[in-house]
């Protein structure tokens, strides 16, 4: 918010009475409001743009020669989760800021499901140190699937309303259709409280079309980041919902949806970009929102349209266009200098008038703060975990039974539902590595009930061993997949020993592991160290037969009880669209 003094000083700088803090001269300005590109100078005072007038001749304390580079507004990620990067907000800065992202709209539902409002406050303690802007999409689903899962905390309507008044809060976080279509009063209160504050409600409309989508939109839901095909994108635009085109590690939608924009000659005013969940190494090597922009242009989208989708469109959507999203007078000075506006690789990143990154690196590292000890001890197993914990009891002693199977879709978080006949030995259903049907389990990790939910999944292609992770969306119990119960047991116990983390086990031996002490979700270590450890773990998973690009990201999503067709929680197998628990065996 601007104060009287700041406004007065900005005016005086523009009139030449005061010196500006910074002049960026000799640039080609990408003006996302007028849709033009033209040569000019940019003047900055008190973190804000004073002038972009080519004929202005103002004095400045510091001058940067743009050498004819393009000046592009700082990029906005319209929806993301810090926890999926495995990095703290401070460590993430070294990865996303050099790629040109200056604003992250973060739904902190992961840490909220683990540690509630206290967890959110612990995360926000880093804000003043960050060389980017963290805005909060207040978690609407804590828990995500009430009655179907065990979580570490609950955020009711009163708590959400209180958090919505925090200055960092810009929206109500993603709300899945079951909360609306089943007319759940608690969530309708959350929507109403948000709309009363003139803030928006983020959606999560995966799999919904037709009248269901109309009902969902009618409740006040503003957007959706779950479109995986062109039909879904068109349906959402028709009912007045904005579309966030997502490119994460295990959910890659840019190519198909941008081609849909081109094929259908769609306007892009109501479309923007997000990452949702993307591992740090992929951000470092491939790019962040700048990848989405550059790839869209490569596919044939007009460069101005693509840059607007990553800047002013998102700012307007969150009702922040008076603050961010453009290089225009009065806005905060978030600016990228790039050689080619068709391929956004920033040479310089300016955040609120200060150079924070140059040539792919932060000017100054952002040290990780001291997180409270209690948030590093969130894993408590109520019962001892042994191989017997993962027995899948059958309705017969021997022979075959028909079971429900989660069929993964490569590079997407949605899955399909099939049924398969499985062998029964001594009253137990076992994994079938030949058909790639492996046992999947979710172990309650908050010390509340000791539940272990059992299912089967196809898609990991493990030939031996097991993988486990303490980030299982959105309840964040321990999820484990394996070829045998002994290795699954060893993997879960290793994650518990670490107080949260991920590991690969084979033959009862831990091949590799990494601790994630902050809520069992994030590391306290610098980005490069975390990325290197994850690279090693991915290689260990591949040595057991898993061929996925991001095996642990896929593992974290496979049990999600709000993404069709099937989910798995500590309470059992979930029919997502029906929003109910079902038996493992087909009845």
Describe this structure in words.
The protein has 587 residues and is α/β, with parallel strands linked by helices. A ten-stranded mixed sheet has the order 18-21-20-19-23-22-25-24-26-27, sandwiched between helices. β8, α4 and β9 (169-175) form a beta-alpha-beta unit. α11 (289-298) runs antiparallel to α12. It starts with a helix and ends in a 5-residue tail after the last strand. The mean pLDDT is 96.
Task: Please tag this protein with its features.
alpha/beta, single chain, nine-stranded mixed sheet, 587 residues, ten-stranded mixed sheet, 16 helices
What is the alpha-carbon Rg in Å?
Answer: 24 Å
Q: Strand tally, please?
A: 30
The backbone outline, from C-alpha atoms, is elongated
Question: In percent terms, what proportion of residues is strand?
Answer: 25-35%
Main beta sheet: 10 strands, mixed
Give average pLDDT, whole number. 96
Could you give the distance between the termini?
A: 59 Å
Q: In which order are the strands of the major sheet placed?
A: 18-21-20-19-23-22-25-24-26-27
Low-confidence stretches: none
The tally of helices reads: 16
The SS-based structural class is alpha/beta
Percent helix: 25-40%
Topology:
Elements: H1 4-14, E1 20-31, E2 36-45, E3 48-51, E4 60-65, E5 70-73, E6 75-80, H2 89-96, E7 101-106, H3 109-124, E8 133-138, H4 157-164, E9 169-175, H5 178-181, H6 185-196, E10 200-203, H7 210-218, E11 223-224, H8 230-238, E12 242-246, H9 254-263, E13 271-274, H10 280-286, H11 289-298, H12 303-309, H13 312-317, E14 335-338, E15 348-351, E16 354-358, E17 361-362, E18 392-393, E19 399-408, E20 415-425, E21 428-429, E22 437-443, E23 452-458, E24 466-469, E25 478-482, H14 485-497, E26 501-506, E27 509-515, H15 527-543, H16 551-557, E28 566-569, E29 572-575, E30 580-582
Parallel strand pairs: 1-4, 1-5, 6-7, 7-8, 8-9, 9-10, 11-12, 12-13, 19-23
Antiparallel strand pairs: 1-2, 2-3, 5-14, 14-15, 15-16, 16-17, 18-21, 19-20, 20-21, 22-23, 22-25, 24-25, 24-26, 26-27, 28-29, 29-30
Helix pairs in contact: 4-6, 11-12
């Amino acid at each position: 918010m601007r104060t009287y003094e700041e406004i007065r000083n900005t005016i005086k700088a523009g009139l030449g009475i005061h010196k500006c803090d910074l002049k960026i001269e000799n640039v080609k300005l990408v003006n996302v409001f007028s849709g033009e590109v033209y040569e000019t100078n940019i003047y900055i005072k008190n973190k804000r743009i004073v002038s972009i007038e080519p004929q202005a001749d103002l004095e400045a304390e510091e001058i940067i020669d743009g050498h004819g580079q393009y000046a592009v507004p700082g990029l906005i990620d319209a929806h993301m989760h810090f926890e999926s990067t495995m990095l703290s907000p401070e460590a993430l800065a070294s990865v996303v800021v050099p790629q040109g992202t200056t604003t992250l709209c973060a739904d902190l539902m992961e840490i909220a499901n683990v540690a509630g409002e206290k967890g959110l406050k612990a995360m926000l303690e880093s804000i003043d140190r960050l060389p980017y802007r963290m805005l909060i999409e207040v978690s609407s689903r804590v828990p995500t699937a009430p009655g179907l899962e065990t979580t570490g905390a609950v955020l009711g309507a009163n708590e959400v309303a209180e958090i919505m008044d925090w200055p960092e809060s810009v929206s109500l976080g993603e709300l899945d259709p079951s909360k609306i279509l089943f007319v759940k009063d608690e969530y309708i209160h959350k929507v109403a409280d948000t709309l009363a504050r003139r803030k928006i409600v983020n959606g999560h409309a995966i799999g919904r079309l037709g009248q269901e989508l109309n009902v969902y939109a009618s409740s006040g839901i503003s957007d959706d980041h779950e479109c995986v095909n062109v039909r879904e994108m068109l349906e959402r635009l028709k009912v007045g919902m904005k579309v966030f085109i997502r490119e994460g590690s295990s959910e890659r939608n840019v190519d198909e949806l941008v081609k849909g924009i081109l094929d259908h000659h769609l306007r892009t005013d109501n479309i923007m970009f997000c990452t949702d969940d993307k591992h740090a190494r992929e951000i470092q090597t491939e790019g962040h929102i700048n990848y989405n922009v550059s790839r869209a242009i490569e596919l044939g989208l007009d460069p101005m349209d693509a840059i607007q989708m990553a800047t002013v469109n998102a700012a307007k959507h969150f009702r922040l266009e008076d603050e961010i999203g453009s290089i225009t007078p009065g806005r905060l000075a978030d600016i990228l200098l790039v050689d080619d506006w068709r391929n956004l690789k920033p040479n310089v990143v300016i955040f609120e008038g200060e150079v924070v990154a140059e040539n792919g690196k932060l000017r100054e590292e952002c040290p990780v703060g001291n997180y409270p000890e209690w948030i590093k001890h969130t894993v408590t197993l109520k019962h001892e975990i042994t191989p017997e914990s993962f027995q899948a009891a059958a309705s017969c002693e021997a022979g075959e039974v028909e079971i429900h199977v989660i069929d993964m879709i490569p590079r997407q978080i949605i899955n399909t539902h099939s049924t398969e006949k499985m062998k029964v030995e001594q009253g137990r259903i076992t994994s079938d590595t030949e058909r790639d049907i492996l046992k999947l389990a979710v172990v309650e990790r908050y010390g509340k009930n000791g539940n272990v939910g059992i299912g089967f999944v196809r898609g990991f292609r493990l030939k031996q061993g097991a993988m486990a992770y303490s980030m299982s969306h959105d309840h964040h119990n321990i999820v484990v997949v394996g070829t045998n119960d002994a290795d699954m047991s060893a993997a879960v116990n290793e994650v518990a020993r670490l107080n949260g983390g991920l590991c690969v086990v084979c033959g009862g031996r831990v091949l590799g592991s990494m601790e994630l002490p902050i809520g069992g979700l994030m590391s306290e270590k610098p980005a490069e160290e975390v990325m290197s450890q994850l690279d090693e773990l991915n290689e260990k998973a591949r040595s057991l037969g898993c061929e996925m690009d991001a095996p642990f990201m896929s593992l974290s999503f496979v049990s999600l009880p709000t993404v069709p067709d099937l989910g798995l929680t500590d309470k059992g197998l979930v029919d997502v669209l029906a929003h109910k628990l079902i038996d493992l065996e087909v009845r």
